[in-house]
């Protein structure tokens, strides 16, 4: 069935999230009829490789440094239609990659860059298109497109951090506020501000992730998620799920704290008409943003039933816990998550 190169890690601030996603897929990919090469990209851009036989132990690591210490380094050679991993140490084997499965999160990976590289050299790349990845990561563009097609989004404005007087930002709506980096995932850099007096600190926190950020009007609602799987042969929406954290925002730090009280919701917790609306709008958003492969579409659901688009994750994060990610989301179609991953890798 060919060799799949799973690329993970990367140089973004979501490096750790990408490792967790790769770790979650090790037991799944080991059951498929593919030779899998796991390509860890260090935070400095070095490529370090392990195969499926050793991936489980390699990825069971608390820090990327431990991976660097134990994995052999490779160089990437590209020509039209060919991707080869050549070892720095000559005694090790080389690998010819037939399909790239990118598991990068955040900038420099989930932003269309790896997809563009593969497209330029005519290498098969599973998952999102160049445009779909780039648009999905850019919160301002994705919200603008979705809003222009009649799907509600929270009120927001774009703030240019370099030129705005942060002590007196001009905003078209009142607080509370949620401040987000424009192109970042996993809730990294997201802050809550009760009023304008707290905006300075929140916007400054977003500064390290880019020159622009989004300031949104805070929405008191349940977060609702729906996965969409679309390839050349299949188009499915998953069951929906949701969560109601005990804080105004579900921050990156909160996601890493298993002790945080989070009320997790499953498909049966929602009325049938809500499930249908979420699935229908998830399909619409996915198509509007040039979706391909497996993506997660996130919404806010207000108490009055209003549904607002939040964001699309073109490469959704995973953990091995069945409560995290889409492991139990496909029973409505009689398939398992393993089948969804297999479909992603189908030529």
From TrEMBL:
Binds 2 magnesium or manganese ions per subunit. It is found in: Cytoplasm. GO terms for cellular component: cytosol. Its main location: cytoplasm. SUPFAM superfamilies: Glutathione synthetase ATP-binding domain-like, PreATP-grasp domain. Transmembrane segments: none annotated. Mg(2+) 1 binds at residues 298, 311. Keywords: ATP-binding, Cell shape, Cell wall biogenesis/degradation, Cytoplasm, Ligase, Magnesium, Manganese, Metal-binding, Nucleotide-binding, Peptidoglycan synthesis. One of its GO terms (biological process) is peptidoglycan biosynthetic process. The keyword Protease does not apply. Cell wall formation. This is D-alanine--D-alanine ligase. It comes from Nocardia pseudobrasiliensis.
